[in-house]
TrEMBL record:
Coiled coil: none annotated. This is Dynein assembly factor 3, axonemal homolog. Keywords: Cilium biogenesis/degradation, Cytoplasm. Pfam families: DUF4470 (PF14737), DUF4471 (PF14740). GO terms for cellular component: dynein axonemal particle. One of its GO terms (biological process) is motile cilium assembly. It comes from Glossina austeni. InterPro entries: DNAAF3 (IPR039304), DNAAF3_C (IPR028235), DUF4470 (IPR027974). Belongs to the DNAAF3 family.
Amino acid sequence: MFWGLSAALDLFEEYLNMAKSSDESYEGEKPNEEPKIVQINILLFGSNDPRHVIKTMAKMYAHKAKGTTPILNFYVVDGCIETIARHIALLGIALECPESMNLRGKVHLFMDVYGNSLLRASSYQYLVGKAKSLFKMITDDECREKLTPLLNFENLKYRERDGLENAFRFWLPKEGHIFQIQEYWAARLRKLMGVRYDHRDGAFDWDLNMVLKDREGQQICSQEYRHWRETGIAFTYPEYEYSKPNKTLAVGLVRNGDKYIHRGYVGDMQTGPFAAFGLLSTDERLLQSAHGQNDYRSTDVTERNLLELFHELSSETPYEHNLKDSRRYGSVKLLMGKTLLYNECDIDAMHDYDKPWIQIDGIKIHFLSSEDVFKLRNGEDCWSNHFDVAFVGYNYFAFLKDSFIKLLREKCLLILETKLMTTARNEDIASFEEKLMNYAKANNFTGVINYSALNKKHSILKYKRKMDAEESCANNC
């Protein structure tokens, strides 16, 4: 919950690559050809965060430059309405008007809200101001159309819209809106570690160096991982102080007069928010290491990747990174001071972030009801043959039935997230991956690449439909 365990994908690029590999007659882009309009529907079934939406939107300009005009409909479904509220807030940061803040400020703000249990005061102020704007957007369709017409809430029930309103109200600094994340984190950590609690530093090192680094977590540095496991603060810089509760991590909100009851913190405490943007990069300079020590932390890789995506969202031009802008903290022992105390009502006046969001042509993001989880898995007729791409989060695979396949079109891409980037035992990882493969095989899907020939572990598995003999003959004739 709260973040995914696989890297952000350009889902339109993934779809095109699948289509090319399926169509042997494909001859590539032709010069001076009329722009080709490609419209596809993309289902995000428990993706936990909007990483795929952000990356796909950021790369739209590149596809247009190649002569393709994408029209993409995203359908986001999650069983927890507070997670949807968090999705919307993170999209709001990514698409924040460039006049409101500079690029690096936007990146650090996103990193704060995305991966830290405690926020900087400036991030907290932004979240409060944004909550007011988001509340208006949920309650007033005219306001939503003015701010960001790319969002669509028509599929949400009235009680779910009320749930979004509750979440945005809870983010405001009022006496009854208490979220003591440090206490919740410490209590859950003690319960999770059990008898190992007094030796938790050794347990943290084991989980990182003997488990996650043996999978795809080589870029995570010991210091940042240990600090996150102890405090819930993943992305840190020495010049910042973290003191305000990140209320986007609260779930199960129920109003009780002027106060709220909630479930405390119920998210991941073993892997961290590093996988989405912090493990891979097209800039290989940030992935270098010496004597087993990374030159750059996963935090620094996250910053660089988000700088690229947010630059492309606002300017629709390629991003060139100056390595001097990335701090080489991989092997540096930073001073991790004590977190500060805060007063919930210490800010009377907040700046309102109510300017129109960056508009991306050809994009529509539909948020579905939690009831649609069961409609989708049962392959109900209203969704039959609707999706060209489906991404299924690892913790939502248990909901799938064979009837889920009815939702997918003939030429579709099915992406299944594995449990690779968890601290589960190797046998459990292998067993879960085998279940994914068996599900795909039983429903007449084949790997986009030959996974059985690769002696490698995978955080996602990509599948396409098998062609029957007649289709194969028709394509070859």
